[in-house]
Design a protein that fits this description.
The chain is mainly alpha-helical. It has 14 helices and six strands. The model has no long low-confidence stretch (mean pLDDT 87).
Length: 341
Amino acid sequence: MKKLFSLAIIIAIAAGVWFFLTPPGDDSSEKVFIISKGEGVKEISQHLEEQGFVKNKFIFETYVWLKKIQVNFQAGEHTLKKNMRLWEVADVLVRTSGPEERDIKILEGWNNREIGKYLEKENILGEEFFLKELDNFEATAGDYGFLKDRPEEATLEGYLFPDTYRIYTKLPPELRSGADEKTDLVRHILKKILNNFDNKLTPELREEIAKQKKTIFEIITMASIVEKEARGEDMALISDIFWRRIDERIALQSDATVNYATGKYETQPSLDDLEIDSPYNTYKYRGLPKGPIGNSGLEAIRAAIYPKANDYWYFLHTKDGQTIYSKNFSEHKANKAKYLQ
């Protein structure tokens, strides 16, 4: 009888341990778990349990102490899934950054091709491979609400938010899908960027866009032009000029959109450039261009949402970068003769 009782206890204990060692769920989506600098095992295990990455913090702590990895946890962001086993979670959290991770910096105004060139220059991904995978990336409106009003034929130009990102250059196993490793790397980078865009475009900004009866796509298209045409306080002034021009059905005549169409970087496009037949040529076609001409920072996006009212209709940039405004075409012609000759 005693033997049966002891066996029952052993089986119960084994079943309990096995229960706690199984994954807490079957959710395979990637979630960010943050270890703050200075946090110890008890705090980390508490947060893991609260966020649903482990079933029981005490079992996790016991595993950590038995493995003697309590001093190996790395502060920073870690990518976890709720269908990971306890030891898989621990393995991710103690993995050192080393050469597998690095920072990339996407600058305000860069278009998608420029981002590709940068990634190639940094020996992370080939430019053409990045652009091809960017087209294939399944970023649907269902995954990201801010893409719901994006035209069906539009790319992700304008949505790749400029910022500094910490990325893997060699993916850990939990981020691999079984597809080509470089394809998974592109997806890893794009998810980070799009999640950042989602966070930066706050509910307050989205409510204001809806209140103005505009779409997010229209806003990021305008922001991309403003990003190229202005800096600082000039952004909101030029945004107002452009929105009023659209309302009055006056061509935007933005040199930046012509440069996007030609692939050039001219301060003043040539007369031949101004004649290019492209939906991005805002000298030839009224209204906003077909889509964004680059990826804008938050300042340009806010300027597109909150233009600063003024009574100017024209502007130009001097060779030293100063912006000169005009209230009518006669003034604008005089300013061109004065500053651009």
